[in-house]
Design a protein that fits this description.
About 30% of the residues lie in helices and about 35% in strands. It has about 180 residues and is an alpha+beta fold. The chain is globular, with a radius of gyration of 18 Å. The chain starts with a helix and ends in a 13-residue tail after the last strand.
Length: about 180
């Protein structure tokens, strides 16, 4: 019975994306990436933070940012509302719409302060602990953890998805994710 359930689940999983694709056009391919951004995991994580960081008044590097992700990437921003976890799920375009004006108006600098990588073959999971500020050298405004899924296609790394949560009094960053 267990084997049958897995087979059925697999068939459903394969059928649903095919049906969904028939319903809407596929996302556009990403723009060409900088080799130094995608050749190594270090390059990917460096670019992941560089593209969204900058002073007030400076446009962000959204084209470069989009070159890091697979078409149709999903981001999940976790928060808490009414005492319950809330997941804001968005694609790249929605993420840009939500954050661009604020980043440019106030300035935003996000930096990685610690990383834990688990890799198997051509897939990797990265817990990347960050801190953010509104100016390059200003006081830290907050911290959190990015959970990033990557894969190697034989030529470059791709980010397949990212989910993050900010540190809060009821959600401290655990010691193993701190420097």
């Amino acid at each position: 019975m267990r084997f049958y359930s897995r087979q059925c689940a697999l068939l459903c999983a394969l059928a649903v994306p095919a049906f969904a694709t028939a319903q809407s056009p596929p996302p556009p391919p990403p723009p060409p990436a900088r080799t130094e951004d995608v050749a190594t995991m270090d390059g990917m994580l460096r670019a992941f933070y560089e593209v969204i960081s900058g002073p007030a008044g400076q446009p962000r590097q959204w084209r470069r940012d989009s070159s890091l992700y697979i078409p149709g990437v999903r981001f999940v921003a976790m928060s808490v509302g009414e005492g319950r976890p809330v997941a804001a799920v968005m694609d790249h375009a929605e993420f840009v719409r939500r954050v661009d004006a604020g980043f440019v108006r106030q300035g935003f600098f996000e930096r990685e302060i610690h990383r834990v990588v688990r890799r198997f073959g051509n897939i990797a999971h990265v817990f990347s602990t960050y801190e953010f500020r509104t100016t390059d050298t200003g006081p830290v405004q907050g911290r959190g953890v990015n959970s990033i899924e990557l894969f190697w296609d034989g030529r470059r790394w791709w980010i397949a998805g990212a989910i993050w949560d900010d540190e809060r009094p009821d959600n401290p960053i655990p010691p193993e994710l701190l420097p």
